[in-house]
Amino acid sequence: MKCRRCKAPAVIDIRRHNAAFCSECFLHHCREQVRKAIHEYEMFGPEDRVLVAVSGGKDSLALWDLLVDLDYEVDGLYLGLGIGDYSDESGVHTRQFAQERGLKLHEVDLPTDHGFDIPGAAQVTRRAPCGACGLSKRHLFNSTAIEHGYDVVATGHNLDDEAAVLLGNVLRWETGYLGRQYPVLEASDGFARKVKPLVRLGEREMAAYCVLSGIDYQVEECPMAEGNRHLGFKEVLNSLEDRSPGAKAAFLSGFFARGHERFQTEADQVLLAPCPECGAPTTTGGTCAFCSLRARAGVVPVELRAGR
Ligand code: AMP
Ligand code: FES
Ligand code: ZN
């Protein structure tokens, strides 16, 4: 196997591109895919201040590295979710990455700054922890960006993540979600722009990127996400991809190009008012979902929780 670009011995092949690359040309390929995604979807320009949400996992650390390489003005944001050793370790990886490169990292810690953690929130809501976790992440990514004057929030969702979410949305014809699933969500009153610059790169490519560029990431997955239905959707898509390489990327990029806009009108019509507690825009007309969660989850003392 030879590198498509320079003909040196290849270290990785990417079947959907019918190509193999040596280490250096593979890193170049990843940068090119991110550059293309940023331009294709007009995510941001050199004048924008970008806040990248970093979990300590392969995708978001690789994204931060790639955006710095591409010369964007980009700082990091790490959220401590209070998920035991998993959170402690993800914080260590993220801080170490930032320190080694002299990059600016903002930190918000749910237990210290907001008085609750994800296991406690899952318990009071009696739902899968991912719901409370996703809600807290969306809220805090946005409020931190607004507070510090960033134009854009970038997350490390990759091609596999987005294709799995799309499959889930299509299987249930979630028209509202389909209208909002896009690599760019424009800024509006009280909301920074949200972007996903890794939509052209798969999970395997992101892991290879980290290994080949010496990024020490957290390999362990979140212990609370076990049985997450997206994992099942990923398996289904992977077996499709095995039989017909490129199927996954075609499914996702075809939706962005020809499907997404058909669901838009329904999703766009929402009236927003500021949350009386935190000022974040909300559809409820009262306290926002995050402040409501904090009020409920913050009152369960740690020692009274199930399993202790
Ligand atoms: P997940 O929700 O775990 O699939 O992660 C999706 C993206 O959200 C990651 O690629 C990161 O950009 C961001 N993210 C997840 N967890 C955190 C965290 N604890 N702190 C900051 N960003 C995070
Ligand atoms: Fe959110 Fe695990 S990272 S529930
Ligand atoms: Zn609020």
Structure, briefly:
With 308 residues, this protein is α/β, with parallel strands linked by helices. It has helices spanning 23-40, 58-69, 84-101, 110-114, 118-125, 129-147, 159-171, 175-180, 203-212, 229-243, 247-259, 264-268, 289-297; strands at residues 12-14, 19-21, 49-53, 73-80, 105-109, 152-154, 184-185, 193-195, 273-274, 281-282. The protein has one domain: Rossmann fold, CATH 3.40.50.620.
How would you describe this structure to a colleague?
By secondary structure, the protein is of the alpha/beta class. The protein has one domain (32-266): HUPs (Rossmann fold). 49% of the residues lie in helices and 12% in strands. The chain has 13 helices and 10 strands. Strands 5-4-3-6-8-7 form a 6-stranded mixed beta sheet, sandwiched between helices. Strands 1-2 form a two-stranded antiparallel sheet. It has a two-stranded antiparallel ribbon with strand order 9-10. α7 packs across α10. It is globular, with a radius of gyration of 20 Å. Zinc ion is lined by residues 275, 277-278, 280, 287-288, 290-291.
